[in-house]
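[09:14] KT: can someone run the structure on this one? pasting the chain below
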Amino acid sequence: MLKVSHIKKYYDDFLAVDDLSFEVKPGEIFGLLGVNGAGKTTTFRMIIGLLEPSSGKITLDGKPIDYSVTDKIGFLTEERSLLTKLTVLEQAIYYGVLKGMKEEDIERRLDELLEKFKIADYKNKKIKELSKGNQQKVQFIMAIINNPKLLILDEPFSGLDPFNVELFKDEIKEMASNGSMIIFSSHRMEHVELFCKKLIVLKNGKSVLEGDLKEIKHKFRKKNIIISGEVDTEEIKKIKGVISVNKNNLDYEVKIADESVVDLVFKVVSKGKNITKFLVEEPSLNEIFIEKVGETYEK
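[09:31] RB: done, C-alpha coordinates below
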Protein backbone atom coordinates (compact mmCIF):
# COMPACT_ATOMS: atom_id res chain seq x y z
CA MET A 1 0.00 0.00 0.00
CA LEU A 2 1.11 3.56 -0.75
CA LYS A 3 0.60 5.80 2.26
CA VAL A 4 1.01 9.57 2.10
CA SER A 5 0.81 11.06 5.58
CA HIS A 6 0.53 14.79 6.30
CA ILE A 7 3.16 15.85 3.78
CA LYS A 8 4.13 19.46 3.24
CA LYS A 9 6.55 20.88 0.72
CA TYR A 10 8.04 24.35 0.83
CA TYR A 11 10.05 26.05 -1.91
CA ASP A 12 11.69 28.74 0.21
CA ASP A 13 8.66 30.53 1.68
CA PHE A 14 6.17 29.13 -0.84
CA LEU A 15 4.02 26.25 0.42
CA ALA A 16 3.40 24.05 -2.65
CA VAL A 17 1.78 21.08 -0.85
CA ASP A 18 -0.08 21.64 2.40
CA ASP A 19 -0.76 18.75 4.82
CA LEU A 20 -1.73 16.19 2.19
CA SER A 21 -2.74 12.64 3.18
CA PHE A 22 -4.15 9.71 1.19
CA GLU A 23 -3.74 5.97 0.68
CA VAL A 24 -3.73 3.78 -2.43
CA LYS A 25 -4.26 0.06 -1.95
CA PRO A 26 -3.23 -2.75 -4.32
CA GLY A 27 -5.68 -2.95 -7.23
CA GLU A 28 -6.95 0.62 -6.78
CA ILE A 29 -6.94 3.38 -9.38
CA PHE A 30 -6.81 6.63 -7.39
CA GLY A 31 -7.52 10.05 -8.90
CA LEU A 32 -5.26 12.99 -8.04
CA LEU A 33 -6.71 16.13 -9.62
CA GLY A 34 -6.14 19.86 -9.69
CA VAL A 35 -5.52 22.75 -12.06
CA ASN A 36 -2.00 23.78 -13.04
CA GLY A 37 -0.07 24.91 -9.96
CA ALA A 38 -2.27 22.95 -7.55
CA GLY A 39 0.62 20.79 -6.32
CA LYS A 40 0.15 17.59 -8.35
CA THR A 41 3.59 17.50 -9.96
CA THR A 42 5.33 18.27 -6.67
CA THR A 43 3.34 15.45 -5.05
CA PHE A 44 4.30 13.02 -7.82
CA ARG A 45 7.97 13.94 -7.44
CA MET A 46 7.85 13.36 -3.71
CA ILE A 47 6.19 9.98 -4.18
CA ILE A 48 8.87 8.75 -6.58
CA GLY A 49 11.67 10.10 -4.39
CA LEU A 50 12.88 13.00 -6.54
CA LEU A 51 11.92 15.50 -3.83
CA GLU A 52 11.98 15.20 -0.05
CA PRO A 53 8.87 16.39 1.80
CA SER A 54 9.52 19.34 4.12
CA SER A 55 7.50 17.38 6.67
CA GLY A 56 5.32 14.30 6.74
CA LYS A 57 5.97 10.78 5.50
CA ILE A 58 5.51 8.69 2.35
CA THR A 59 5.81 4.89 2.44
CA LEU A 60 5.32 2.05 -0.03
CA ASP A 61 4.45 -1.23 1.68
CA GLY A 62 5.62 0.31 4.94
CA LYS A 63 9.04 1.38 3.61
CA PRO A 64 10.24 4.92 2.88
CA ILE A 65 10.61 5.77 -0.82
CA ASP A 66 14.29 5.38 -1.69
CA TYR A 67 16.41 3.53 -4.24
CA SER A 68 15.51 0.20 -2.64
CA VAL A 69 11.90 0.57 -3.77
CA THR A 70 11.97 2.89 -6.82
CA ASP A 71 12.47 -0.10 -9.13
CA LYS A 72 8.86 -1.01 -8.27
CA ILE A 73 7.53 2.37 -9.49
CA GLY A 74 6.55 3.52 -12.98
CA PHE A 75 5.85 7.14 -13.92
CA LEU A 76 4.30 8.48 -17.12
CA THR A 77 4.95 12.22 -17.10
CA GLU A 78 2.74 14.74 -18.86
CA GLU A 79 5.78 16.07 -20.73
CA ARG A 80 7.65 13.95 -23.27
CA SER A 81 10.65 12.36 -21.52
CA LEU A 82 12.02 10.18 -24.30
CA LEU A 83 15.53 10.26 -25.76
CA THR A 84 14.43 10.86 -29.33
CA LYS A 85 17.73 9.91 -31.02
CA LEU A 86 17.53 6.38 -29.60
CA THR A 87 15.58 3.54 -31.14
CA VAL A 88 12.60 2.19 -29.24
CA LEU A 89 14.66 -0.88 -28.25
CA GLU A 90 17.60 1.26 -27.08
CA GLN A 91 15.26 3.44 -25.02
CA ALA A 92 13.70 0.35 -23.43
CA ILE A 93 17.08 -1.14 -22.54
CA TYR A 94 18.26 2.17 -21.08
CA TYR A 95 15.15 2.55 -18.95
CA GLY A 96 14.83 -1.12 -18.03
CA VAL A 97 18.43 -1.41 -16.86
CA LEU A 98 17.91 1.64 -14.65
CA LYS A 99 14.99 -0.30 -13.14
CA GLY A 100 17.21 -3.30 -12.39
CA MET A 101 16.02 -5.51 -15.27
CA LYS A 102 18.16 -7.87 -17.36
CA GLU A 103 18.46 -7.08 -21.06
CA GLU A 104 16.88 -10.34 -22.19
CA ASP A 105 13.89 -9.69 -19.90
CA ILE A 106 13.61 -6.14 -21.19
CA GLU A 107 13.49 -7.22 -24.83
CA ARG A 108 10.98 -9.99 -24.13
CA ARG A 109 8.70 -7.59 -22.25
CA LEU A 110 9.13 -4.92 -24.94
CA ASP A 111 8.11 -7.33 -27.70
CA GLU A 112 4.99 -8.25 -25.74
CA LEU A 113 3.98 -4.62 -25.21
CA LEU A 114 4.79 -3.45 -28.75
CA GLU A 115 2.55 -6.21 -30.06
CA LYS A 116 -0.20 -5.29 -27.63
CA PHE A 117 -0.08 -1.62 -28.69
CA LYS A 118 0.06 -2.43 -32.42
CA ILE A 119 3.54 -0.95 -33.04
CA ALA A 120 5.71 -4.09 -33.27
CA ASP A 121 7.25 -2.80 -36.54
CA TYR A 122 8.70 0.25 -34.72
CA LYS A 123 11.05 -1.66 -32.40
CA ASN A 124 14.20 -0.55 -34.23
CA LYS A 125 12.96 2.87 -35.35
CA LYS A 126 14.29 6.03 -33.79
CA ILE A 127 11.77 7.70 -31.52
CA LYS A 128 12.05 11.01 -33.38
CA GLU A 129 10.69 9.24 -36.48
CA LEU A 130 7.43 8.29 -34.74
CA SER A 131 4.19 10.26 -34.68
CA LYS A 132 3.10 12.06 -31.52
CA GLY A 133 0.59 9.32 -30.75
CA ASN A 134 3.12 6.52 -31.21
CA GLN A 135 5.64 8.39 -29.07
CA GLN A 136 2.98 8.49 -26.36
CA LYS A 137 2.58 4.72 -26.70
CA VAL A 138 6.33 4.25 -26.33
CA GLN A 139 6.40 6.53 -23.31
CA PHE A 140 3.61 4.49 -21.71
CA ILE A 141 5.47 1.26 -22.49
CA MET A 142 8.59 2.64 -20.80
CA ALA A 143 6.53 3.43 -17.69
CA ILE A 144 5.17 -0.11 -17.40
CA ILE A 145 8.00 -2.21 -18.82
CA ASN A 146 9.11 -3.18 -15.28
CA ASN A 147 5.58 -4.32 -14.28
CA PRO A 148 5.47 -1.62 -11.58
CA LYS A 149 3.76 -2.20 -8.29
CA LEU A 150 2.98 1.55 -8.21
CA LEU A 151 2.19 3.40 -11.44
CA ILE A 152 1.68 7.17 -11.73
CA LEU A 153 -0.11 8.34 -14.88
CA ASP A 154 -0.16 12.07 -15.61
CA GLU A 155 -2.34 12.84 -18.67
CA PRO A 156 -1.78 9.37 -20.18
CA PHE A 157 -4.11 9.86 -23.16
CA SER A 158 -2.41 12.96 -24.56
CA GLY A 159 -2.15 12.81 -28.35
CA LEU A 160 -4.12 9.57 -28.71
CA ASP A 161 -7.05 8.84 -31.00
CA PRO A 162 -10.13 7.06 -29.56
CA PHE A 163 -8.93 3.60 -30.69
CA ASN A 164 -5.61 3.96 -28.89
CA VAL A 165 -7.29 5.45 -25.82
CA GLU A 166 -9.17 2.15 -25.56
CA LEU A 167 -5.89 0.20 -25.74
CA PHE A 168 -4.51 2.27 -22.87
CA LYS A 169 -7.71 1.85 -20.85
CA ASP A 170 -7.61 -1.92 -21.23
CA GLU A 171 -3.98 -2.09 -20.09
CA ILE A 172 -4.57 0.18 -17.10
CA LYS A 173 -7.56 -1.88 -15.97
CA GLU A 174 -5.60 -5.12 -16.45
CA MET A 175 -2.72 -3.82 -14.34
CA ALA A 176 -5.13 -2.84 -11.57
CA SER A 177 -6.79 -6.26 -11.70
CA ASN A 178 -3.32 -7.79 -11.28
CA GLY A 179 -2.75 -5.76 -8.11
CA SER A 180 -0.90 -2.64 -9.24
CA MET A 181 -1.56 0.60 -7.37
CA ILE A 182 -2.31 3.35 -9.89
CA ILE A 183 -2.47 7.11 -9.41
CA PHE A 184 -4.34 8.68 -12.31
CA SER A 185 -4.41 12.36 -13.24
CA SER A 186 -6.28 13.77 -16.22
CA HIS A 187 -8.15 16.92 -17.22
CA ARG A 188 -10.72 14.66 -18.93
CA MET A 189 -13.17 14.16 -16.10
CA GLU A 190 -15.06 11.44 -17.95
CA HIS A 191 -11.87 9.36 -17.88
CA VAL A 192 -11.44 9.96 -14.16
CA GLU A 193 -15.04 8.87 -13.57
CA LEU A 194 -14.47 5.75 -15.62
CA PHE A 195 -11.37 4.65 -13.70
CA CYS A 196 -11.35 6.06 -10.21
CA LYS A 197 -13.47 4.99 -7.27
CA LYS A 198 -11.55 7.28 -4.92
CA LEU A 199 -9.99 10.66 -5.58
CA ILE A 200 -8.60 13.82 -4.11
CA VAL A 201 -8.78 17.33 -5.58
CA LEU A 202 -6.04 19.85 -4.81
CA LYS A 203 -6.25 23.61 -4.82
CA ASN A 204 -3.21 25.67 -3.87
CA GLY A 205 -1.54 22.54 -2.55
CA LYS A 206 -4.37 21.62 -0.20
CA SER A 207 -7.15 19.04 -0.47
CA VAL A 208 -10.53 20.65 -1.13
CA LEU A 209 -12.40 17.45 -1.97
CA GLU A 210 -11.63 13.80 -1.28
CA GLY A 211 -13.23 10.42 -0.78
CA ASP A 212 -15.30 7.83 -2.60
CA LEU A 213 -16.61 9.21 -5.92
CA LYS A 214 -20.10 7.77 -5.48
CA GLU A 215 -20.40 9.30 -2.02
CA ILE A 216 -19.07 12.63 -3.25
CA LYS A 217 -21.73 12.73 -5.97
CA HIS A 218 -24.47 11.65 -3.60
CA LYS A 219 -23.61 14.33 -1.04
CA PHE A 220 -23.40 17.07 -3.64
CA ARG A 221 -26.79 18.74 -3.35
CA LYS A 222 -27.17 19.97 -6.92
CA LYS A 223 -28.78 17.56 -9.38
CA ASN A 224 -29.66 17.53 -13.07
CA ILE A 225 -33.02 16.63 -14.61
CA ILE A 226 -33.08 15.44 -18.22
CA ILE A 227 -36.42 15.92 -20.01
CA SER A 228 -37.56 14.89 -23.49
CA GLY A 229 -40.78 16.38 -24.85
CA GLU A 230 -42.61 19.67 -25.23
CA VAL A 231 -42.43 21.61 -21.95
CA ASP A 232 -42.97 25.17 -20.77
CA THR A 233 -39.36 26.10 -20.04
CA GLU A 234 -40.28 29.62 -18.92
CA GLU A 235 -42.55 28.16 -16.24
CA ILE A 236 -39.77 25.82 -15.10
CA LYS A 237 -37.33 28.74 -14.82
CA LYS A 238 -39.72 30.47 -12.38
CA ILE A 239 -39.49 27.58 -9.88
CA LYS A 240 -37.44 28.43 -6.81
CA GLY A 241 -34.39 26.21 -6.75
CA VAL A 242 -34.07 25.88 -10.53
CA ILE A 243 -30.61 27.12 -11.46
CA SER A 244 -30.81 26.87 -15.25
CA VAL A 245 -32.68 25.30 -18.16
CA ASN A 246 -30.72 24.41 -21.30
CA LYS A 247 -31.55 22.65 -24.56
CA ASN A 248 -29.09 19.86 -25.40
CA ASN A 249 -29.82 18.24 -28.76
CA LEU A 250 -33.30 16.77 -28.31
CA ASP A 251 -33.40 17.01 -24.50
CA TYR A 252 -33.72 19.74 -21.92
CA GLU A 253 -31.28 19.80 -19.02
CA VAL A 254 -32.61 21.40 -15.84
CA LYS A 255 -30.07 22.09 -13.12
CA ILE A 256 -31.59 22.22 -9.63
CA ALA A 257 -30.29 23.22 -6.21
CA ASP A 258 -31.32 19.97 -4.50
CA GLU A 259 -33.72 17.02 -4.68
CA SER A 260 -36.57 18.95 -3.05
CA VAL A 261 -37.07 20.77 -6.37
CA VAL A 262 -37.73 17.57 -8.35
CA ASP A 263 -41.46 17.33 -7.56
CA LEU A 264 -42.04 20.98 -8.45
CA VAL A 265 -40.39 20.53 -11.82
CA PHE A 266 -42.32 17.32 -12.43
CA LYS A 267 -45.66 19.10 -11.86
CA VAL A 268 -44.86 21.54 -14.64
CA VAL A 269 -43.47 18.86 -16.95
CA SER A 270 -46.56 16.65 -16.47
CA LYS A 271 -48.60 19.35 -18.22
CA GLY A 272 -46.43 19.14 -21.32
CA LYS A 273 -46.84 17.05 -24.46
CA ASN A 274 -45.06 13.95 -25.77
CA ILE A 275 -42.99 13.53 -22.60
CA THR A 276 -40.76 10.48 -23.10
CA LYS A 277 -38.09 11.12 -20.50
CA PHE A 278 -37.86 12.58 -17.00
CA LEU A 279 -34.56 11.49 -15.50
CA VAL A 280 -32.88 12.78 -12.34
CA GLU A 281 -29.10 12.44 -12.56
CA GLU A 282 -26.19 12.96 -10.22
CA PRO A 283 -23.95 15.88 -11.24
CA SER A 284 -20.88 15.14 -13.33
CA LEU A 285 -17.45 15.19 -11.71
CA ASN A 286 -16.64 18.18 -13.92
CA GLU A 287 -19.50 20.18 -12.35
CA ILE A 288 -18.35 19.27 -8.85
CA PHE A 289 -14.74 20.12 -9.72
CA ILE A 290 -15.70 23.58 -10.97
CA GLU A 291 -17.82 24.16 -7.87
CA LYS A 292 -14.95 23.24 -5.53
CA VAL A 293 -12.00 24.69 -7.40
CA GLY A 294 -13.69 27.67 -9.00
CA GLU A 295 -12.40 27.04 -12.51
CA THR A 296 -12.36 24.43 -15.24
CA TYR A 297 -9.52 21.94 -15.45
CA GLU A 298 -8.01 22.99 -18.76
CA LYS A 299 -4.48 23.19 -20.05
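[09:33] KT: thanks! The first strand starts at residue 2 and ends at 11.
[09:34] RB: yep, looked fine to me
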